[in-house]
Write a structure and sequence with these properties.
By secondary structure, this protein is an alpha/beta fold. The protein is built from ten helices and eleven strands. The longest helix is centred in the middle third of the chain and has 15 residues.
């Protein structure tokens, strides 16, 4: 069988005007251990990015805090000038003063400065999707989102998304500006954002699940389905995400071409409705 591509997952519209294949790539793990510093081999990391695009990935998610800066630098080096259909999404709002630390910084001046750095590293004139990485408890959410609005008005940002948000925080942001995407932790075992997946489907927002293939190792049914479909457990949980809601845009990440190809191959797996139901509910 030929290698499936991200296009086999179908498409999704982000913000109403950016149509992308519904299996993207998360570029957090092309950095060093602990998401800190350079990867062991920068050329290999760039090869992974290029292979992702070859396999039909046209949505890549990153953040200035990955490395920090390293992930964005590698994307710019490997892929610019970008194909016309490639959407780069990045985030601001977390700083990395040391390895192992992820400190919120939602000050408007920081977000504006971070945007300039991301534009430079990614070699972009405009960020297609700019996401507020996490609410800073020391800064009013409205002030932080206001900085994103200013950047959009200046043409430096096309669409605004949010990450690690509750419904109440989403509503506060939506009162200020259109929000086109939500990126929260969500996978087969961690369903804390279940209601927000449904909200995104109802309101036609893209839902980007982070940690999409974690925490499934104890699920016996996943193992059974892997055998049934001739797939890996990782592929089964990705196929389930694709089947769970048309609003879900999985962004699995890796620093390995082999693992990348395995992840993308999940787009070619079509789980039966019965299998999706059992995975979703945990009941046969």
């Amino acid at each position: 069988m030929s290698q499936p591509t991200a296009g086999d997952a179908g498409t999704i519209d982000v913000g109403g005007d950016l149509t992308v294949n519904r299996l993207g790539f998360g570029a957090m793990r092309i950095t060093g251990d602990g998401i800190w510093g350079d990867p062991p081999d920068r050329e290999e990391a760039k090869a992974v990015l290029r292979r992702a695009v070859e396999l039909g990935v046209n949505f890549i998610d990153t953040a200035d805090s990955y490395g920090p800066n390293v992930s964005e630098e590698l994307i710019g080096e490997a892929l610019a000038p970008y194909p016309d259909d490639l959407v780069i999404a990045t985030k601001a709002g977390l700083i990395r003063p040391a390895a192992g630390r992820w400190d919120p910084d939602g000050r408007p001046e920081h977000i504006k400065e971070a945007c300039e750095g991301s534009l430079r590293r990614l070699k972009l004139d405009q960020i297609p999707l700019y996401q507020y990485h996490r609410v800073d408890p020391n800064v009013p959410l409205e002030d932080s989102i206001g900085a994103f609005v200013e950047l959009k008005e200046q043409g430096k940002v096309r669409h605004i998304g949010v990450s690690n948000f509750t419904e109440e925080q989403i509503r506060r942001a939506q009162a200020i500006t259109p929000i086109v995407s939500l990126q929260n932790r969500y996978n087969l075992s961690d369903r804390g954002s279940e209601s927000l997946v449904d909200l995104c489907e109802q309101e036609q927002l893209a839902f980007l699940p982070w940690a999409p293939i974690q925490d499934h190792t104890d699920n016996a049914y996943v193992q059974q389905l892997a055998e049934k479909y001739g797939a890996t457990p990782y592929q089964i949980v990705l196929a389930w995400l694709l089947a769970r809601s048309p609003s879900i845009l999985p962004i699995p990440g890796t620093g390995s071409i082999k693992h990348l190809e395995e992840n993308i191959a999940a787009a070619g797996i079509k789980l039966s409705a019965a299998d999706v139901s059992v995975l979703t509910t945990g009941k046969e």
